[in-house]
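Hi U.,

Before I forget, here's the chain from the pilot set. I'm dumping it here mostly so it's searchable later in email.
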Amino acid sequence: MKPLKNDRYLRALLKQPVDVTPVWMMRQAGRYLPEYKATRAQAGDFMALCTNPELACEVTLQPLRRFKLDAAILFSDILTIPDAMGLGLYFETGEGPKFQHPVASHRDVENLPIPDPELGLGYVMDAVRTIRKNLEGEVPLIGFSGSPWTLATYMVEGGSSKAFTKIKKMAFAEPKTLHLLLDKLADSVILYLNAQIAAGAQSVMIFDTWGGVLCPRDYKLFSLQYMEKIVAGLTREYEGARIPVTLFTKNGGMWLESIAATGCDAVGLDWTIDIADAKARVGDKVALQGNMDPSILYAPKERIEQEVADILAGFGEGEGHVFNLGHGIHLDVPPEHAGYFVEAVHKLSKPYHK
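Structure:
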């Protein structure tokens, strides 16, 4: 593997000096890019795209050809683990992910296998290896997984949900069943992310998309403790390089101190918290990633630049900031607006780095 030409993303996660604030975007490879739509059409459907390492590599690299991003993120889906457990993942047009065999009982959970990452999820590892080779050391590659709680919501609900009634019924009526499921998922995520690291991922991120639907007590009980277990089980150094770990809970601003205490290197922030407040609370312990509202990218160039300037000023001087959106980029954002965003971060952040 070639040495990294641009390592500022990894340096920022480890709170080391950088020349400018690094930036990447959640869902940077996706439907807002016409070239992505063309490649997805070539693949036939979303899962065919995910399971084809060459095409997954192609869409991972597409945004890097347009924008001077400081990291690539593996193109995959958070629901690959439940799919490998035999739940039968499929996607309905306009309705999102669904499972043919949702988890409904203690027996269902007992029967779930813990997937071997190089067998049932080998296509993901092949994609990681292919992407690392084709990146040629330009920028680091981020691997990722969904959190146990977030994966469990889809597995028990059978797909997306608004009220989360089935998973919460399990949490409060059959907590032993849910804890067994979450424990199996945590073990699976540890194996999965460590396999991504061995295949070439240089940093990993855990997406806890639905942790914010829990009350503080239940967040720690059903989400955070399992992410903490994962952090403890991850390979943190590989071939002489530190592997930073980022945890991101959407709507998790009230629990920043607890997230930072898990042993992770960085905490992802959505846009519902002021980054200055977040830095004051946990900035000496961890790096921070975020946190512009993705909808700002609908605005004119000047408004985008002003928002970038405000967030940079909120974080202020010092290391440990990776600029990102507070969640994934929206599918109807003009690509040139994403370009304005990336350029603004690099241009406006120089004064904050000595």
